[in-house]
Amino acid sequence: MRTIYFDYNATTPLDERVREAMMPVLDQVWGNPSSVHHVGRQARALLDDFRERAALVLGCKPSEVIFTSGGTESVNLAILGTARLLRPKGRHIVTSAIEHHAVLHCCEYLVRNEGFNVTYLPVDREGLVSLEALESALRPDTMLVSIMAANNEIGTIQPIARIGALCHQRGIRFHTDAVQWFGKEPFDDVGSLNADLISVCAHKIHGPKGAGALCAASPLFPKPLLFGGAHENEHRAGTENLAGIAGLVTAMELFIPEPVFCREKLMPLAKRLIALVDRLEGVQLVGSRDSRLANTVSFVTEGSDSIALLAGLDLEGICASSGSACSAGSLEPSHVIRALGLGDEAANSLVRFSLGRESTHEEVALVEAVLPSVIERSQRLNKRPTPCE
Length: 389
Ligand SMILES: Cc1ncc(COP(=O)(O)O)c(C=O)c1O
Fold this sequence. Notes:
By secondary structure, the protein is of the alpha/beta class. It has helices at 16-27, 38-58, 71-85, 101-114, 131-137, 160-169, 231-234, 242-255, 263-279, 306-315, 335-339, 343-347, 361-383; strands at 4-5, 65-68, 92-96, 117-121, 142-146, 173-177, 197-201, 212-216, 283-286, 296-301, 318-319, 351-354.
């Protein structure tokens, strides 16, 4: 059976050039960048070089790049670290109801354990945050706003530059989780986003897992979360994952200035999937029709659920996704779909196709051929009475 991988928002395959950039670091420059001898100094020189190259892609100072273990850590550092830094200014954070759990769980932690208040902005039916709602949520004690650049489940793109400008007018720090946005949308430099803190991750843009960065505008650096050394200019302790950093920076250079998720290539494929979803009875496209990532097509289905649908697709060789898995390995209803106001049945039936560089019209044709029967089968199974009924 052939595999159709339509789950690029979950992760992407490692690019050959990225792998080639990582290999010499794994094999030859294996020193500890903190060691004073020449083996260590060689690794340190490389680390400094990678930091400069990352800063060049982002359009910031090298000292403003903090390498991390990935998107989750970048977001945690931005939110927990900034909350703790700016606690004397206030204890109010504004975010949206459709953020990734990396953001939401940090906010919940701060509320439960550190006396912060959080306002969760609602979104409209398309998943868009309103600037008016943001403006009225801001308070004198608001010290941080965190709004994602693009949503991982439904692909809605937020007006980040305008949100950032509003925060800056009010003297409030602004973080954007741009993990799903980099490499998918045109990008000039961090200045154009009006964000003080920007989370980046390698494995969504054909880089390795376990590597990311937080771009933090000086001089207000988040308080560190990890202690035990002066690494990363004292912002993040721990011996650096130099091979991962080599992969991250190479992926950033190759795939951010010229987005690897090419809109011109992906739009026709996505349009076919959207047309398919629109044709099917009881199936509804979710997200925005205008302000959306070109690679993401998500839908909900009446009388079915995500597990049955994903299993049915998988039997046909098609890898798709839904909301997030909970710790027991089953699927939680999507908080994003709930926030769109579509109800619990819809939240339990989300399916996301996320396309990428290797996706083809032939693959879309296969999905067109099998999706109606996969949906029908799952609806039939859903209707079957349980033995106790
Ligand atoms: C929007 C968003 N933020 C953060 C993350 C977490 O990134 P990582 O997998 O690198 O920890 C993800 C991953 O799916 C994401 O989609």
